[in-house]
């Protein structure tokens, strides 16, 4: 894929990995639209980068996804890259979480339903362009889950399989389907968790090399090793990740 001259929507582009992708793509002469729930965060970023476009909304709601589709069709009909990056992670134990049904619904809506639905809603727009891409951000936790976030791990495993299947379905279309599989990255999501994290910029460096070469799956940093370990010594990979 070309790295410049694209029109790119990045969900969750106001923080962490999404923001690093947004800044890099802006520097590479792309039109970038970012989306998040916090109006304040988006306004602050718009002040720092006036050339960026913003859309404020909670993507866990189908109504917001349709509003975003309308916004794109009206303002950015040349959109050719969708990056499904927005996500949340809840850590809790199933036996003593009082808000469990609400949390399950919200986490699945953000991490799984939103990327699937947005891909469907923006497909006609992406199909109109000569070269386009859907990029889904999953997680190393689909390879081996951890105990503290079962629903998060399940959402990422499902997103991985969805990405693979959609890639098959769109094989003969102008839309290429990519996946970023991050290791532990230093972002607000992982604040106070884990050691030896990669920076979001390091992730972007690795991903762009793959994107440029049309390599569909970007296993970032240590996820390459985890993938190998899981293939040849699955129980070792599982015990390594269980309490990560
Ligand atoms: N950091 C890691 O180590 C790591 C590892 C593996 C995978 N990932 C994945 O990478 C992606 C980005 O994570 P990150 O670490 O960069 O997290 P982050 O810094 O917390 O950023 C998450 C972004 O998503 C937005 N967002 C969250 N829920 C949303 C919703 N319902 N509607 C619209 N926007 C929403 C947030 O903005 P608002 O809060 O303003 O809505 C923010 O811009 C996620 O899918 C995550 O699961 C991260």
Structure description:
This protein is an alpha/beta fold. It is built from eight helices and seven strands. The chain has helices at residues 16-27, 39-48, 62-75, 100-128, 150-169, 200-212, 223-232, 234-242; strands at residues 7-11, 31-36, 53-56, 81-84, 132-137, 175-181, 217-219. It has a seven-stranded parallel β-sheet with strand order 3-2-1-4-5-6-7, with helices on both faces. The chain is globular. The two termini are 34 Å apart. The structure holds NADP nicotinamide-adenine-dinucleotide phosphate. NADP nicotinamide-adenine-dinucleotide phosphate (NAP) is lined by residues 11-12, 14-18, 35-38, 41, 58-60, 85-88, 110, 137, 139, 182, 184-185, 187-190.
Key features?
binds NADP nicotinamide-adenine-dinucleotide phosphate; 7-stranded parallel sheet; 244 residues; 8 helices; 14% strand; Rossmann fold; alpha/beta
Helix and strand arrangement:
Blueprint (H helix, E strand, L loop, with lengths): L6 E5 L4 H12 L3 E6 L2 H10 L4 E4 L5 H14 L5 E4 L15 H29 L3 E6 L12 H20 L5 E7 L18 H13 L4 E3 L3 H10 L1 H9 L2
Parallel strand pairs: 1-2, 1-4, 2-3, 4-5, 5-6, 6-7
Helix pairs in contact: 1-6, 3-4, 4-5, 7-8
Bound molecules: NADP nicotinamide-adenine-dinucleotide phosphate.
The site of NADP nicotinamide-adenine-dinucleotide phosphate has 29 residues, from α1 and β2.
């Amino acid at each position: 894929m070309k790295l410049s001259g694209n029109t790119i929507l990045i969900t969750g582009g106001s923080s962490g990995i999404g923001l690093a992708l947004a800044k890099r793509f802006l520097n590479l002469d792309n039109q970038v639209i970012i989306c998040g729930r916090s109006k304040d965060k988006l306004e602050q970023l718009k002040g720092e980068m006036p050339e960026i476009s913003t859309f404020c909304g909670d993507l866990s709601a189908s109504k917001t996804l349709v509003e975003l589709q309308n916004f794109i069709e009206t303002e950015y009909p040349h959109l050719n890259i969708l990056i499904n990056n927005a996500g949340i992670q809840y850590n809790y134990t199933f036996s003593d979480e009082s808000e469990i049904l609400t949390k399950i619904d919200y986490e699945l809506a953000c991490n799984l339903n939103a990327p699937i639905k947005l891909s469907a809603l923006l497909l006609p727009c992406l199909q109109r362009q000569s070269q386009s891409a859907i990029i889904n951000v999953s997680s190393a936790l689909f390879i081996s889950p951890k105990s503290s976030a079962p629903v998060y791990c399940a959402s990422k495993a499902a997103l991985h399989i969805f990405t693979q299947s959609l890639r098959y379905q769109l094989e003969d279309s102008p839309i290429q389907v990519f996946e970023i599989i991050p290791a532990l990255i230093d972002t607000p999501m992982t604040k106070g968790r884990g050691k030896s994290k990669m920076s979001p910029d390091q992730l972007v460096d690795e991903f762009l090399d793959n994107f440029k070469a049309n390599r569909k799956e970007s296993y970032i940093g240590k996820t390459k090793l985890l993938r190998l370990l899981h293939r040849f010594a699955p129980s070792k990979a599982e015990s390594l990740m269980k309490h990560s």
